[in-house]
Amino acid sequence: MSPTAWRIAVVGAGPVGLALALHAARLLPHAQITLFDARPAGRDLQADPRTLALALGSLQFLQRLGVGAAVAAASEPILEVHVSQQAGGPSGAELLLRAADLGVAPLGAVLGYGALVAPLQAAWQAEVAAQPARLSSRFGTPVRSLKPGPEGVEVDAGIAEPYDLAVLAEGGVYAEQARRAVVRDYGQTAWVGTVALQGAVRGRAYERFTAQGPAALLPLPPAADGRARAALVWCVAAADDPVRGLDDAQRLAVLNTVFPAAAGGLVAISPLKSFALGLNAERTLVRGRVVRIGNAAQTLHPVAGQGLNLGLRDAHALVAALRWAPDLDRALARAEWARAPDRWALIAATDFLARSFTWRLPGATAARGLGLAALQALPPLRQALARQMMFGRR
């Protein structure tokens, strides 16, 4: 392991920032690591309504970080993914990915934001308590700026302090972010919440391609009364939003026509929140001694549900590059190079799919249906797609 006692600042204590800090604390034993976040450490994380989808590779990473059991207890495994199109294309065109066919236990898992962040934060705080001389937390301390310094970067969180490296892991939603080098507004709105279902297949996720955009149901742990639940992501055109003016009963009625009958009947729905959708990405992860990872580097359309997984792979690869490197700048260049194929492949794929819903070209819908049918008919392609969803591009 690298014997260099670098001073590393991690800005952002969401799941990606916490995973990075925890992984670095364990694999870079000489590094001094400080974690910054604007939120207080005692804020109720369970109150956050967001739902997260974790791929199998992310679950394995979290297991290595020591929080696998807590995540498993609070999540619902994804055993199957069913992708289909509402209209157009070959009759019955669909794609079914099954964990059993791939020889894995789950394809991934779904859980609430707080159910992931809380055990990561507890594990990090335990490391800080055990090693206070080199690890520290600055919760409730927003970072105002990052500036190049003589031999690193100055982190201004009220007082400018020098660090060898700053890792920016603060995310935020597309509508509130400063615009980066690669930007595309999809003109779509995502409505998110939870639904209760009757007759659902446990562990099966659904993605449905509609004329307005993709809609997804991601399985959640059952409710206290035993009813099946799912997280809903419903993407529609922003300019002519068909969801905003509907009440809950009307939304349920529409959703029951959107998803296939096999998904089960949607019988209850939570209040929905809306988010503007777009692509907002940096061309490079590394700028001097500042590295951007997760949503700080790329905010994607949720069509593939891979944004968090991409960020966790950013964190893992950065620590791997630093682990054996005596030279920090060479290590950062190596991390940039290592992440490029996976990062740009996913950016390109989600961008293509998101834009395809805005095309009014004759045959565009049929082409999507043919693509689903071809993937289902060709097991090697289907398995390659599943492996990329589980582990990213390797």
Observed structural traits:
9-stranded mixed beta sheet; globular; alpha+beta; 34% helix; FAD/NAD(P)-binding domain
What would your notes on this structure say?
This protein has 394 residues and is α+β, with helices and mostly antiparallel strands. It has a domain of 226 residues: 3-Layer(bba) Sandwich (FAD/NAD(P)-binding domain), CATH 3.50.50. The chain has 10 helices and 21 strands. The strands form 4 sheets. Strands 5, 6, 13, 14, 15, 16, 17, 18 and 21 form a 9-stranded mixed β-sheet that branches. The longest helix has 29 residues. The two termini are 23 Å apart. The mean pLDDT is 92.
Classify the beta-strand content into a percent band: 25-35%
| Biggest sheet descriptor | 9 strands, mixed
What is the subunit organization of this protein? Answer: single chain
Q: Count the helices. How many?
A: 10
Task: Sum up the overall morphology in one term.
Answer: globular
The average pLDDT is 92
CATH topology title of the domain at 7-76 and 109-179 and 279-363: FAD/NAD(P)-binding domain
* Number of DSSP-assigned strands: 21
Euclidean distance between termini CA atoms: 23 Å
What's the Cα radius of gyration?
21 Å
Q: Flag low-confidence runs.
A: none
CATH architecture descriptor text of the domain at 7-76 and 109-179 and 279-363: 3-Layer(bba) Sandwich
